[in-house]
User: Which sequence fits this backbone?
């Protein structure tokens, strides 16, 4: 009896940009959980190595990825972009589903044994940040009395660990308020209840540009600067440990392109402010002003701000210890900075 010809092995291919929770186009696997379906099948035969890059799904990183695309093309045979809010990317990094990402500085401080940092790049506020705010029904001077009389909680967003830690530090050590009861809410829900609420990202930027009547919008980058005199590092470029082979080669290329992107950023912002991804509610001038309020490098001042943030997180018991800054390839811009 003649043997049936064997079927060739099949390699799955996926779009270069995937969002957590988005189902794969393979309907035969519809019975599997959607989050599992969002990523390449780890058991695919002959699947080539690819560098999975996280992208924060907010406007603050648009200039970075627009310029990276020009430099690298972010070819689908080498790089895959996976979008999500900061906490989603933190979880994907921790699971190994993302290899490198601009992710919460708190994630690095909380799990330093799992990561290294790409030198020279981050997302920091120089003064104000505009897109990380506390929306409160009363000024900070009246918050203690308001919280007591209304038995009100402090609402934090599920989207960001760093900003949640920051507002807790400011609450206790800058505004000198008693420890609050804390509730969690999804992004985009600040001002839905008359309680102090943390908001981040594009939702927060809209609150800054168009403050709702009867609300005080506190810029947390500005509040941190007033407290410490330093920039605040909201995100660092985190690399998960253990990358091997081609992934290390792709990361080398990516790191070089990222360094060039950070160097060229300032001269490109006016042009990028007319990028087609800019939403209708944001003018080109507002977009450029927003981006210029941030630093996309990671110099001595930013690293000092990161170290102080880590020390204050430890002081409030948010992390067990303050780690040293550990760099990919052990080539930091300034070696040996610790808290």
Assistant:
């Amino acid at each position: 009896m003649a043997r049936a010809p064997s079927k060739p092995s099949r390699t799955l291919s996926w779009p270069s940009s995937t969002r957590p929770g988005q189902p794969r186009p393979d309907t035969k696997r519809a019975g599997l959980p959607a989050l599992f379906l969002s990523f390449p099948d780890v058991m695919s035969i002959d699947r080539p190595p690819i560098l999975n890059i996280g992208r924060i799904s907010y406007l603050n990183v648009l200039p970075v990825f627009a310029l990276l695309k020009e430099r690298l093309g972010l070819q689908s045979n080498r790089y895959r972009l996976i979008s999500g809010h900061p906490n989603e990317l933190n979880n994907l990094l921790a699971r190994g589903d993302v290899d490198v990402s601009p992710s919460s500085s708190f994630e690095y401080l909380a799990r330093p044994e799992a990561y290294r940092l790409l030198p020279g790049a981050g997302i920091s506020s120089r003064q104000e940040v505009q897109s990380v705010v506390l929306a409160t029904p009363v000024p900070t001077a009246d918050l203690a009395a308001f919280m007591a009389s209304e038995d009100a909680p402090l609402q934090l967003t599920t989207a960001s660990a760093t900003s949640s830690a920051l507002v807790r530090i400011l609450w206790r050590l800058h505004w000198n308020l008693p420890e609050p009861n804390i509730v969690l809410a999804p992004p985009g829900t600040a001002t839905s209840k008359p309680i102090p609420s943390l908001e981040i990202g594009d939702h927060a930027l809209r609150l800054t540009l168009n403050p709702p009547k009867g609300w005080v919008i506190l810029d947390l980058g500005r509040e941190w600067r007033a407290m410490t005199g330093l920039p605040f590092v909201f995100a660092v470029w985190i690399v998960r440990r253990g990358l091997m082979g081609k992934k290390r080669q792709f990361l080398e290329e990516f790191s070089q392109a990222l360094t060039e992107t950070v160097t060229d950023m300032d001269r490109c912002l006016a042009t990028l402010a007319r990028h087609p991804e800019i939403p209708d509610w944001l003018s080109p001038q507002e977009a450029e002003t927003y981006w210029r309020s941030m630093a996309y490098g990671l110099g001595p001042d930013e690293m000092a701000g990161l170290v102080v943030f880590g020390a204050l997180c430890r002081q409030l018991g948010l992390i067990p210890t303050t780690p040293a800054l550990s760099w990919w390839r052990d080539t930091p811009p300034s070696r040996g900075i610790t808290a």
Summary: The longest helix spans residues 245-272. The chain is about 35% helix and 20% strand. Residues 1-46, 331-339 have pLDDT under 50 and may be disordered.
